[in-house]
Structure formats: C-alpha cells, structure tokens
Write a structure and sequence with these properties.
- This protein is of the alpha/beta class and 371 residues long.
- It folds into 2 domains: 315 residues, Thiamin diphosphate (ThDP)-binding fold, Pyr/PP domains (Rossmann fold, 3-Layer(aba) Sandwich); 36 residues, no CATH class.
- Helix content is 44%, strand content 9%.
- It contains 14 helices and 8 strands.
- Strand 3, helix 7 and strand 4 form a beta-alpha-beta unit.
- The relative contact order is 0.15.
- The structure holds thiamine diphosphate and magnesium ion (MG).
- Thiamine diphosphate (TPP) binds next to strand 3 and strand 5.
C-alpha cells in the first residue's frame, strides 16, 4: 500500500462590512477608524470620477485606450491606506486596476492619464515614490515584486513589496514562479489577486480548476486568504495582517480579493457581447461606494450636503489633472534616449545625433536611411 501524505487546508474568507452597509463589530476591531472610512469614501469617489472622465477622454479621441477601475476601488483603497500609514515606504508593483492605491502613496494623478495618452512621461515615477510603472504584460510583474522583496530581506529593511494582478494573471507561469520564489526564500512579499470575475471575455469560472484563486499559493508555502474585495474593512484587515506576517515572520501572503469589473475590460472592449447584464446588475448592488456611504450615513457621518461638496471637489480636482496632463510641454528630442539606458551605445548615439539634425516631420535623406 502506498503511504499517504496528509495535506489539508482551509481558506479563510473575510467580510466585515456587508452589502447593506452593516458592520461586523467584532471583526472590525482594530481596523478602520471613522476618519479612515470618511477619507477612503472620499478617495474612492474622487477616483470613480477620474475613471469616468478618463473614459470620456478616450471616447472623445483625447486618449488612446483606458481600463476602468470602476467597481474595484475598495481593493486599492484598503491596500493603499495600509501602505500609506507605514509612510509609503513599501514598494507597490501594480497592474492597471488599482489607481487609487498609487495616488494615495504619492503618484501624481496626471501620470496615469499620460500613460494612457501614450506619453512615456506617464511612466516616469517621481524620485522617492516607491511605485513601479503599471504593467500591461499580464502576470510578469509579480516577479519584480519578489525581487524587490528579496532585496529588502537581504538588506534587513523594514519594508515589504506588494504586487497587484488579476485572476487571469494567475494562469501565467511568471506569476507562479514569483510566488514559488517568495515562498521558498521567505520574502516580505504580498500578492494581491483582484478576482474581478473576468479576464477580458474569459470568466474566472473557467480560468482555473482550483476552487479558489487564493489556494494557488498553498503549494508554494504562502499564507493564503480570501476577502470581500468590495469591503474596505476586510481588505484593510487582510492587508494589515499580511504586512505583519511579512515583517515579523518573513512569510509571504496571497490575497484573493473577490470583486467585480463593472466596466468593459478596456475602452477597446464591449462586454455586452459576452456578459449577462443580469450578472452586472447583481454586482452594481455590491458597489463598494454605495455600501461605504450607507455605513457612513447610518453612523451619522455623511449627509447630502457633504456628498454635494465632495462631488464638486472631485470635479474641480480631476479637471485640473486633465488640464495638466493635456497641457504638458511637448517631449524634447532627447526624451526618448534619456530614460532607458544609463549609457548609450554607438548606434543610439548616432540616432540621437540624427534626431537633432532632423525636425520631427522631416523625411530623412536616402543616405541616412541606408546607413
Ligand atoms: C503576457 C500577456 N498576455 C496576454 C495579454 C493580453 N491581455 C490583456 S488583459 C488580459 C486579461 C487579464 O485578466 P486579469 O488578469 O483577470 O486582469 P483584469 O483585466 O481582469 O483586471 C489579457 C489576456 C497581455 N497583456 N499580456
Ligand atoms: Mg480579471
């Protein structure tokens, strides 16, 4: 008879603020203060407006493409606040649906607009801001997070690295390699999987044979947990716990945040072609903004007049951001050479010189082309 190796595991699931805005007081202990909740509600509302404006910029031909964050703001909010409270010293390694976490930790809001407008300066992160440029290749950047976490461990720093990615990304080898490396090396690394139920037109139900996305980390020795990703309390709690675990025990965590992509995949997509409108309607009811507002109203912390003032503030802020992004000075001819290589090779030096002697619209001479 073969020997049996026993392995059993259970994945904990956290929900603290339910869809009706009712709080589980016991689980909410040591999580968000009233001020935190008001702050996060305001931030989520501003970023929801930003999202709507970005969508309109694309539709009116002022932006190339844009992936809406709509519906997923609570994941970015809870994670972003936990990092902000540590002085934004940790590294965030993002995908493209956690804008708020980046804004809350020092990324100027213009940057994301510039990125999607096709301006590389959108990827130029200010010095001292510990955020990598957003990753469009799916599932490649968890490796960068593992590498950064390794450096923190090697240097004995009190810092963690946090990667965000989607349910679809977990089918990529790189993503699994990153988790394996983090588990094997016991790195202060947190993997946040936003299971928004879709990877473009592929539903998460057929993305994997695994019952949860969280349990994919078990084999690598990660702590694995699931939470309601539309609940700022639950997200904040599991992120805080994961940070403690990473710092105190050197144990990495995989968090599966259950949420929903309320918009199309990007502005280049039309989800009505493959997605049931009834499903979307169900998730509209679970919108993180609606439930947070309900909670605040019940506690007497929010009112219609505060809402009106917030909407006016969001409008003003975002229109200023758009003005700054669209009003940026044109790139110089040197910009494309300055930020990729520390030292240019001979061919790039030649190209740089050629750029200086030709105006951008001018067709190079045949002689230049054949060289
Ligand atoms: C390596 C790679 N393969 C394929 C794509 C094309 N692609 C863009 S988004 C996407 C789906 C991603 O789904 P998920 O990880 O669930 O993230 P979501 O868009 O739902 O946030 C794919 C396959 C890509 N960008 N990179
Ligand atoms: Mg997805």
């Amino acid at each position: 008879m073969p020997k049996k190796v026993a392995y059993t595991a259970k994945i904990e699931h956290f929900q603290i603020l339910d869809e009706k805005g009712v709080l589980d007081e016991r689980l909410a202990k040591n999580t968000l203060s009233d001020e935190d909740v008001v702050f996060l509600y305001e931030q989520m509302s501003i970023v929801r407006h930003y999202d709507e404006i970005a969508f309109k910029l694309q539709r009116s031909g002022r932006m190339g493409t844009y992936p809406q964050n709509k519906g997923q703001e609570a994941v970015a909010a809870g994670a972003g606040l936990a990092i902000r409270q540590r002085g934004s010293k940790d590294w965030l390694i993002p995908c493209y649906r956690e804008n708020l976490a980046l804004f809350m930790n020092g990324l100027p809001m213009e940057k994301i607009l510039l990125h999607w407008m096709g301006d590389e300066r959108g990827n130029q992160i200010p010095d001292g801001v510990n955020i990598l440029p957003i990753s469009i290749p799916i599932g490649t950047h968890p490796l960068h997070a593992a590498g950064i976490a390794w450096a923190h461990k090697y240097r004995g720093e009190d810092k963690i690295a946090m990667a965000f990615f989607g349910d679809g990304a977990t089918s990529e080898g790189d993503c699994m390699e990153a988790m394996n490396f983090a588990g094997a090396m016991k790195l202060p690394c947190i993997f946040v999987c936003q299971n928004n139920k879709w990877a473009i037109s592929v539903p998460s139900s057929i993305q994997t044979g695994s019952e949860t996305f969280a349990q994919k980390g078990l084999a690598f020795g990660l702590h694995c947990v699931q939470c309601d990703g539309n609940d700022i309390f639950a997200v904040y709690k599991v992120i805080k716990d994961a940070i403690d675990r990473a710092i105190k025990e050197g144990k990495p965590t995989l968090i599966e945040a259950l949420t929903y992509r309320l918009g199309d995949h990007t502005t280049a997509d039309d989800a009505r072609r493959y997605r049931d409108e009834k499903e979307v309607a169900q998730w509209v009811k679970r919108d993180p903004l609606i439930r947070t507002r309900k909670y605040l109203e019940t506690k007497g912390l929010w009112s219609d007049s505060k809402q009106k003032a917030l909407e006016a503030k969001a409008k003003e802020m975002v229109s200023e951001v758009v003005k700054n992004a669209e009003g940026i000075e044109p790139p110089t001819k040197d910009d494309i050479f300055d930020y990729t290589f520390a030292v240019l090779n001979d061919e790039l030096i030649r190209q740089r010189e050629t750029m200086q002697t030709h105006s951008l619209g001018q067709v190079p001479q045949q002689e230049t082309l054949s060289r």
